[in-house]
Amino acid sequence: MARSEQPYKGLRCNDCRSFFESEEPVERCPKCGGLLDTVLDEDSLTEYSRKRLDEGGRSMWRFSMFLPVRRGSVPVTAGEGGTPLRPAKSFSKNVWVKDETRNPTGTFKDRGASVAVTRLSQLKVQQLVLASEGNAGCSFALYSQMARIGCHVYLPRQSNPAKIQLTKKLGAHLTQVPGTIADAGRYAARSAKAAGRYNASTFVTPFRHDGKGTMALEISQQFEWKSPDYVVYPVGGGVGLVGMWKMFKILGKIGWTRSNPRIIAVQPSGCAPVVEAYNRGREDVEEWKSPRTIANGLKIPKPLAGKWILKSIRESKGIALKVRDTEIRRAMRQVATKEGMLMEPSSAAGFAAIPRLYETGSVDRGDTLVVIATGSGLKTLEQL
Ligand SMILES: Cc1ncc(COP(=O)(O)O)c(C=O)c1O
Description:
CATH architecture of the largest domain: 3-Layer(aba) Sandwich
Bound molecules: pyridoxal-5'-phosphate
């Protein structure tokens, strides 16, 4: 098969639509400050065969043609992705779990970090900084160390102790700041500017969401290129939701699948800016005042990519719903005792939505549902 062109072409601004072919480590749009998306040439992608994917190994890098890297480049990888899809019969015979707890640091954040660090090392970045609630900090600490890039992580003080420990043990420079992730974001931005470090925070960098988008590619392959009816996703910054929806659409356009799943976005009732905006028909999210929830990864008062998240859910004809912390706790117990999986609260939020979806008739018990189990409970034992 003659693969004439590299599918990854460059970056396009979601707002002013400017295109950048740049080999510079760009963050937000240099012209208007909007968020950048990576551009893949779909004609080049059609030259690849879905039948030959397994020749590329088991990790998510078998889908490297969908990723914003140069062809033939060596990935910074610890074997992330390639995670199992397993049944969760205690919920219903049509519920499946994409088990992201199997990733190197126990969460799906490893996918985004592996892609971003690969691209940033190609772009010769030597120091990066990010704000995180904890899991992304662990992932970037791991991959930065592998690539010998300096990593500076800003975490809210109330992060889970194991996330703090692991970030430090993996060699990152850690600063704990008072307040929420929004405050950590301000510290990270200041540090990036003052010390000339690359800011790899959620959607400040355009190189993370395609990594999480590989979950959509794997789910489609695991369903033998037939889409499930729904994908349930616990939304924080929306990186995985935006990335997966983008990849589901691309698969349809290049003819690998015939239909797309509908996305079900779940947030805790103590911090649900996306659910609120979606159900009120808004174009962007409004800041959630005084967020309170046990799901630390979902405690994002105003996701930067609000418009992009809402557009993705809308395009998929999706559903958005809130779950209470008591329901999250119940789901954590059910998943642990009946399914044998340890979930952190942010991850259990997706499972907490299932009974409600059935009770309200939003989803039929005959429909196939894939829940993304985003993170392991081993980092949040104090909350189990
Ligand atoms: C375990 C877990 N689940 C879900 C999320 C939300 O992810 P996203 O930012 O892709 O919406 C996070 C983010 O920190 C997380 O740590």
